[in-house]
Design brief:
With about 475 residues, this protein is of the alpha+beta class. It contains 15 helices and 20 strands. β9 and β10 form a beta hairpin. α7 runs antiparallel to α9, α7 packs antiparallel against α12 and α11 packs antiparallel against α12. The protein starts with 8 loop residues before the first strand and ends in a 12-residue tail after the last helix. The N terminus and C terminus are likely disordered. Bound molecules: adenosine-5'-diphosphate and magnesium ion.
């Protein structure tokens, strides 16, 4: 893979004139051109590909020795281990501390551009200032303005990028780990936001997970200082500048509305990463100009249409993505902390149940049947019907159920046949919770015993009011 294959981070001038802007910065032209030749639709492995999987290059050449530690011999270069759009990552051995560290060196092509060099130095300073367990720790910065060189050392993360973890998903357990990872990413972002820093380039390539599950948000090269600019020396970007990675970009960012970028812009991108984890594809694919247009309008395919990667996307998780990726920042989670709490609540609740569609007129559960599932209506109405004890051929309508209502749980908790039928009046969408999962949720808990007692009492009472129909049992509907 060559250097210009996939630098997905775009830094460009006014959104309306991307190609003209592209020619102003060396990196952008490459970034835009490279989109054309990408294998867009061939699954999860490639579409976020940075050059992190690039084959290892040899040690730094003499002219590239940019860190004094390398020059004095304290740090021994063990070669390049990865590459992104901004520079390359080398593994070094620190002979004094007898440990390995990572060195990020600005791409020699970009180092000649003072603006890019400043951006790189700002990146090191921002990352260094954000001391947090989920942000990669920076050790030091070597900056030689006159020689036009910049590099910084940081913790060497022994692990994988989230891109790899997403591609390797095979089970619900794997997706659970990704959700835990994203909650930690939110923790890191909540801290950065409290310091006035928006990351602006959150994507699976820029998140690393260590061997023991440690999560690190990397690559703060696009970060925007929204408050006081004491940390950075670079000029604030003018309105109209588009910076970041189109595939995961919030609409205000894609429109170059710099003054509207805030914590919620990162919230959008975390939602977009979750979208990718669930569906296998980033929200905005295809040639960059089209992707940028779609991103500016916030138009992406609904997750409901996706079969999912490891599991069919559970509706509760789909709802989290929808809110995080709302077009209007006011409709999103208002902070990264809020999104973290939602993800953790989902993990605690274990609501992995699928959404089913029942056509109008369909009997969803039938009176007298054995209960095999309970239902939570998300769309449409249902009617509860019971056979008339006086005339078994007739049924009596008991009540209407609306979105948000549940049914079918009593027969499971009371371990009894269905006491009524439920018929879809419209096309109904409902979350279906299977019997085993429901039983597991209440097994061996006090709450479970209370719920079971309530169900028993309800059926007892109902039997007094209307004796159960002794119709022959049918197979479950
Ligand atoms: N400290 C590190 N330890 C291990 N690998 C790293 C480290 N920093 C970066 N990498 C790897 O290098 C890739 C590119 O680094 P990144 O900082 O994202 O560069 P760029 O700004 O050029 O995109 C990452 O996707 C990751 O695979
Ligand atoms: Mg990167």
């Amino acid at each position: 893979m060559s250097r210009t294959d996939v630098p997905p981070t775009v830094v460009a001038g006014p959104a309306k004139d991307l190609s003209a802007a592209a020619s102003r910065t060396g990196s952008t032209a490459a970034a835009l051109d490279s989109y054309e030749g990408l294998p867009w639709f061939d699954g999860a492995m490639h579409d976020d590909a940075s050059l992190s999987a690039a084959t290892a290059h040899g040690p730094l050449e003499e002219a590239e020795v940019v860190h004094p530690g390398v020059a004095t011999g304290r740090l021994r270069d063990e070669g390049e281990i990865a590459r992104g759009g901004m520079g390359s990552i080398h593994r070094l051995y620190d002979l004094e501390l007898r440990r390995r560290v990572a060195l990020k060196v600005i791409d020699p092509g970009l180092a000649t551009d003072p603006e890019m060099r400043q951006r790189f130095v700002d990146e090191a300073r921002i990352t260094g200032a954000l001391a947090h367990p989920n942000i990669v720790p920076v050790h030091d910065l070597a900056f030689d303005e006159r020689a036009g060189r910049a590099a910084y050392t940081m913790k060497l993360v022994d692990g994988r990028t989230l891109t790899e973890l997403i591609a390797m998903q095979a089970s619900q357990r794997d997706l659970e780990r990704i959700l835990q990872c994203l909650a930690s990413v939110c923790d890191a972002l909540a801290f950065a936001h409290s310091r006035g820093i928006v990351h602006r380039d959150l994507k699976p390539d820029n998140i690393m997970v260590g061997e023991f599950g440690e999560v690190y948000v990397m690559d703060w090269g696009c970060a925007l200082a929204t408050g006081e600019r004491t940390l950075v020396d670079g000029e604030p970007e003018p309105e109209g500048t588009v910076a970041g990675t189109v595939r995961y970009m919030a609409p205000e960012q894609a429109r170059g509305e710099i003054s509207r970028i805030d914590a919620r812009t990162d919230v959008f991108s975390i939602g977009a990463i979750l979208y990718k984890a669930l569906t296998g594809q980033a929200p905005y694919m295809g040639p960059s100009e089209q992707a940028l247009d779609a991103a500016a309008r916030c138009e992406f395919r609904s997750i409901d249409e996706s079969g999912g990667v490891a599991v069919k996307p559970p509706p509760m998780l789909t709802a989290i993505v929808k809110q995080a990726m709302a077009r209007d920042p006011a409709d999103r989670y208002q902070s990264a902390a809020e999104l973290a709490e939602e993800l953790r609540a989902f993990l605690r609740g274990g609501n992995w149940f699928p959404l089913h569609v029942f056509q109008a007129g369909r009997t969803i559960v039938r009176e007298g049947d054995r209960a095999d599932a309970a239902y939570l209506i998300t769309e449409g109405r249902c009617e509860v019907r019971k056979r008339d004890p006086a005339n078994r051929a007739r049924s009596i309508a008991l009540r209407i159920l609306k979105p948000g209502d549940v049914f079918g749980e009593t027969a499971i908790f009371a371990d009894a046949p269905r006491s009524a039928s439920v018929v879809a009046l419209d096309d109904v969408k409902a979350v279906v919770v299977d019997r085993a999962s429901l039983e597991q949720l209440v097994a061996n808990t006090y709450l479970g015993r209370f719920v079971k007692a309530l169900a028993d009492r309800f059926l007892e009472l109902e039997a007094r009011v209307a004796p159960p129909a002794d119709a022959p049992k049918r197979p479950a509907s």
